[in-house]
């Protein structure tokens, strides 16, 4: 027996929507992911056929046909169309061509007579009225939206305000048997921002490490510090690999994250990692076996293979030149000759491409090892 909106208790058409804003769209990926997960869970127990399309690439008439075609083995069908703002609020020039298929989807939403379920994901729509819901001047699309609303298929993915977000985080922690203290929720928002997907990832780490059934602000900032330290190590590795695109992307992510600290802190972490390689290089050049040198400078055995591969490509002279170039970056930042981000980006690009300057400063770095 094919699944349908009526037989499964789910609406035949669901709209996951965000709100259009001047700077783009207010759309929360975490909420969208949660809504989709719940829809799929509601179909659990059946063999579900899932199709995922982009609205501007799909033939919508064929999508509607697929929605009304029973699955051969009798299970449920879930059809997801992303970028659906192009269907619900298209330019006036496209409305005539879209009208027939939009009317057809409206009929499916009203009747629930479909072999499967359609999810329209529209990240940026006008949202108006009380209660607030999507609004469009495209009459056929508005009729579709109204039909979906009447069947209970509208799902808001507009990010909650800060107060609502803190409550949501606290509720998720409570479900796991842990108390997220108020200052800890403040600290999470301070470090991560309002991206719920990123917040959920950090919350899951905190829940896994929670002791005493509570998460404090100190726990949050401690995790943030460890996260930033790991990112610095990743960035240092990409630099030593000469992988400029990956290194610059890693740096960009760190500069955009409050958890990573200041630019000087990033540079300090990088030079600490480079000095470890220099210490190992000096030991190897003095006759120590590479694996023993790695162990002596504190490299854990499970990452020694990668460490030794990089060490084979860098000797003490080149590492000294790298540290000298890092010192120039430090001077550029502190003297104001360059902005922090530009100085770091220039340093990373130069280091990845071997544009290093060896001068009298090298001796100072070796002395500090």
Helix content: 55-70%
Q: What are the segments in which pLDDT stays under 50 over at least 5 consecutive residues?
A: 1-7, 358-369
Instruction: Assign the CATH superfamily of the largest domain.
Output: P-loop containing nucleotide triphosphate hydrolases
Order of SSEs, N→C? Answer: HEEHEHEHHEEHEHEHHEHHHHHHHH
Mean pLDDT, to the nearest integer, reads: 83
Radius of gyration: 27 Å
Question: So what's the CATH class of the largest domain?
Answer: Alpha Beta
| Sheet with most strands | 7 strands, mixed
Beta-strand portion reads 5-15%
How many structural units, i.e. domains? 3
Name some characteristics of this structure.
Rossmann fold; 369 residues; Zinc Finger, Delta Prime, domain 3; 9 strands; two-stranded parallel sheet; seven-stranded mixed β-sheet; 17 helices; alpha/beta; disordered C terminus; 59% helix; 3 domains
């Amino acid at each position: 027996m094919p699944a349908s909106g009526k037989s499964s208790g789910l609406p035949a058409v669901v709209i996951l929507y965000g709100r259009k804003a001047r700077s783009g769209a207010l759309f929360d990926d975490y909420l969208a992911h949660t809504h989709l997960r719940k829809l799929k869970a509601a179909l659990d127990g059946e063999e579900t056929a899932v199709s995922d399309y982009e609205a501007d690439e799909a033939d919508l008439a064929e999508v509607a046909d697929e929605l009304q075609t029973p699955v051969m083995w009798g299970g449920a069908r879930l059809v997801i169309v992303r970028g659906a703002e192009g269907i619900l609020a298209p330019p006036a020039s496209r409305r005539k061509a879209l009208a027939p298929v939009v009317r057809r989807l409206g009929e499916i939403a009203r009747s629930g007579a479909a072999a499967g379920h359609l999810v329209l994901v529209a990240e940026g729509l006008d949202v108006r009225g009380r209660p607030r819901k999507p609004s469009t001047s495209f009459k056929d699309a508005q009729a579709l939206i109204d039909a979906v609303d009447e069947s209970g298929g509208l799902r808001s993915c507009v990010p909650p305000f800060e107060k609502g977000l803190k409550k949501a985080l606290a509720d998720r922690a409570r479900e796991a048997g842990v108390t997220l203290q108020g200052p800890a929720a403040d600290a999470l928002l301070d470090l991560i921002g309002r991206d719920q997907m990123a917040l959920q990832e950090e919350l899951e780490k905190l829940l896994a490490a929670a002791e005493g059934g509570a998460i404090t602000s100190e726990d949050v900032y401690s995790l943030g510090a460890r996260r930033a330290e790991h990112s610095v190590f990743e960035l240092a590795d990409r630099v030593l690999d000469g992988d400029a695109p990956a290194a610059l992307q890693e740096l960009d992510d760190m500069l955009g994250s409050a958890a990573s600290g200041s630019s000087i802190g990033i540079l300090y972490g990088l030079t600490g990692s480079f000095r470890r390689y220099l210490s190992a290089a000096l030991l190897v050049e003095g006759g120590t076996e590479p694996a023993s040198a790695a162990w002596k400078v504190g490299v854990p055995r499970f990452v020694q293979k990668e460490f030794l591969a990089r060490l084979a490509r860098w000797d003490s002279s080149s590492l000294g030149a790298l540290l000298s170039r890092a010192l120039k970056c430090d001077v550029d930042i502190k003297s104001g000759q360059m902005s922090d981000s530009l100085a770091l980006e220039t340093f990373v690009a130069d280091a990845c491409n071997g544009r290093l300057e060896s001068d009298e400063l090298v001796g100072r770095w070796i002395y500090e090892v």
